[in-house]
């Protein structure tokens, strides 16, 4: 003998919930955000990171510091993402990598010696360096990187150092464009010798960073744009 089990009729609340759920699904399906567009919108984040730094430096009347390579690379990364220019993304990431270590050595290390910290400065600086590189790595995993990127990154450095020398205050020494940096003074008495050695070291470091990144996310022939 077969027993037939009758289902309990659904009440009004269950039918209403199901109907609302269906409407939400239909609405989302009608207004999708393409994956490529979501990728481009990542570019808003590094621009916001740069804006946070701009607010900090405006408050202390030292806007020239915005031209440090790690800061300005956030603009390059944001513009590269919003316009889908892989080359700009790669250059920005190659500079954000050493920027993180330099920031940790010369900025974060000094925080422990302050009696009172400017927490907005801590927040904005962390966003620009940790946040910028995090967004950059996410982007680089998609656009990949080719070995010639180091040469573009080197050219970007030379250009920004020239701009820094021309328009920023000498006492800020932005991108080491004005004078010998801090503890290097006893080793070098001539700024030109210091600049030459530093430029060679920068070129070597950029090549090495590009090589390491290319091992993680190599670029195919169709991606070298």
Report a brief summary of the structure.
This protein has 225 residues and is mostly helical. It has eight helices and no strands.
Describe the overall structure.
The chain is mainly alpha-helical. It has one domain. It has 8 helices and no strands. The protein has helices spanning 12-30, 35-41, 44-59, 69-82, 86-111, 119-143, 149-167, 191-216. The protein is globular. The model is unreliable at 1-9 and 24-33 (pLDDT under 50).
Distance between the termini: 73 Å
Largest sheet: none
Total separate domains: 1
Pick out the low-confidence regions: 1-9, 24-33
Rg computed from alpha carbons, rounded to a whole number of angstroms = 25 Å
The secondary-structure class comes to mainly alpha
Shape: globular
Quantity of strands, as a count: 0
On the 0 to 100 scale, the average pLDDT is 84
Q: State the helical fraction.
A: 55-70%
- SSE ordering: HHHHHHHH
Estimate what percentage of residues fall within beta strands: under 5%
Alpha plus pi helix count: 8
Task: Indicate the topology.
Blueprint: H1 12-30, H2 35-41, H3 44-59, H4 69-82, H5 86-111, H6 119-143, H7 149-167, H8 191-216
List keywords for this structure.
single chain, 8 helices, 225 residues, mainly alpha
């Amino acid at each position: 003998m077969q027993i037939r089990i009758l289902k309990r009729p659904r009440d009004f609340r269950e039918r209403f919930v199901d109907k609302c759920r269906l409407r939400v699904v239909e609405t989302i399906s009608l207004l999708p955000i393409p994956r490529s567009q979501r990728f481009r919108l990542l570019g808003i984040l590094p621009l916001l990171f740069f804006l946070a730094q701009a607010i900090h430096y405006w408050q202390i009347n030292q806007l020239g510091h915005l031209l440090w390579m790690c800061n300005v690379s956030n603009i390059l990364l944001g513009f590269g993402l919003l316009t889908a220019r892989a080359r700009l993304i790669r250059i920005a990431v190659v500079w954000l990598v050493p920027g993180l270590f330099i920031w940790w050595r010369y900025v974060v290390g000094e925080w422990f010696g302050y009696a009172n910290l400017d927490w907005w400065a801590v927040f904005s600086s962390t966003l620009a360096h940790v946040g910028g590189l995090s967004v950059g790595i996410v982007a680089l995993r998609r656009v990949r990187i080719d070995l010639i990127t180091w040469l573009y990154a080197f050219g970007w450095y030379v250009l920004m150092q020239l701009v820094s020398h021309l328009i920023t205050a000498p006492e800020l020494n932005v991108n080491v464009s004005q004078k010998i940096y801090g503890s290097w003074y006893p080793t070098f008495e001539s700024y030109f010798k210091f600049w030459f050695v530093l430029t060679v070291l920068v070129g070597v470091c950029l090549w090495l960073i590009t090589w390491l990144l290319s091992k993680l996310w190599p670029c195919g022939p169709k991606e070298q744009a």
